[in-house]
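Ticket #4471: structure export looks truncated?
Reporter: QA, pipeline team
Priority: medium

Steps to reproduce: submit the single chain below to the structure queue and open the exported record.
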Amino acid sequence: MWQKLKRDLLAVKERDPACRNLLEAALLYPGFHAIAMHRVAHVLWRLRLRFLARLLSHLSRFFTGVEIHPAAHIGAGFFIDHGMGVVIGETAEIGEDVTMYQGVTLGGTGKERGKRHPTIGNRVVIGADAVVLGSFKVGDGARIGAGAVVVKSVPPHATIVGVPGRVVKENGVRKEEEVNLDHADLPDPLENIIRHLLSRIDKLEKQLASLEERKRSEIHDANRAL
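Actual output as written to the record:
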């Protein structure tokens, strides 16, 4: 547990440019506080001290705004940036060196028993307010854009955006437009549709103006003929 906590602390310093030193990371980052308390709660859960585990998880939620079920398996080097609103379900599994931003949900669907939450691979980045629902795998090195809703498996090293989530890049090969892998710069999946609609509206407005001009000209010619 201590080795994992050490890597969690180092992850804060390595991945947040606003963090100036490890003391600041340890004392001033609620995301680190949440994972630290989860590490202890997870040990209690495995020792079958379930009430104490849930109590510590509840206290962690109160103080940090991050809700992690004590049964969830989380690998070393886990970094939650900002943290508020993150929810990680009971059967979720998270690999190593995963980065997660505020508002992320790793949830289940329905009331089924057993494995019902996602499995997140190593080195995955999940953007702010993304929702990942179901008992499927998100492959190693994947990027999930801010606000995406993912309900099916994600290939390794893929970039997912939109509602529902869709692959725009996989293994370095663009599926659609070029994508910057920085989670903050992922494209809006509705952008092309909106651009097309605006272009269509502009074209229709020009056609309507042309028809109105022709109609006025015809009326003018008819009046002159009279």
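Status: closed, not a bug. The export was complete when the record was re-opened. Leaving a note from the reviewer for reference: The chain is about 40% helix and 20% strand.
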